[in-house]
Amino acid sequence: MSLSEGSVRSMLATNLRRARSERGLSLSELSRRSKIGKATLSQLESGTGNPTIETVFSLSRVLEVPISDLLDARPAGELTVVRAADVEVLSGEGVDLRPLQRIESGDAVVELFDQQVRAGRRQESLGHVGTEHTIVQAGRLGVRVEGHEVELGPGDYVRFDASRPHSYLALDGDVRSVLLLQYRAEQRLHLSDPALGGGPCGSER
């Protein structure tokens, strides 16, 4: 997802309105379920908000859609090159994510991210749709899933049900890793359907 394809902010605004419409949720109800303020959601839908990892993953969990249905990553062509400088970073309390690609094959959808966990910081998640896969490239990463903790080094891999509460912690300096989120195709919304409309920015159903 490059800057030329539109910013994370503008794509989230469009897709959030459509996803909310598809689920038949008002801003007030989405706010209640996601624990995100109604004013913040209104700003996100109007394209003036500042989305964080925590916000996007919370919306993914409540709306039960893959992250890429909110960020609108593009499917791969015959040759796809994604330059680091062309990708916007989605930041959270302890993690910086760069969405690189969405891969669709049969009944599987995989989202590919470059992930950096900042030194000494923990990134918490209440859970979201999909199965999470992480491959550590550099550094030591602590992973906690519902109270179970493992430590990973370069080349190590972990897989878990992403709907469970989980967290990442950089144990010794920054950690560079590859994050893959795997979904079933039926978990995706058909956000390209013009019939979903979306209505005016910030409006409720």
From TrEMBL:
Coiled coil: none annotated. Residues 16-70 form the HTH cro/C1-type domain. Keywords: DNA-binding. The keyword Secreted does not apply. The keyword DNA-binding applies. SUPFAM superfamilies: lambda repressor-like DNA-binding domains (SSF47413), RmlC-like cupins (SSF51182). PANTHER family: HTH-TYPE TRANSCRIPTIONAL REGULATOR, METHYLPHOSPHONATE SYNTHASE. This is XRE family transcriptional regulator. It comes from Streptomyces luomodiensis.
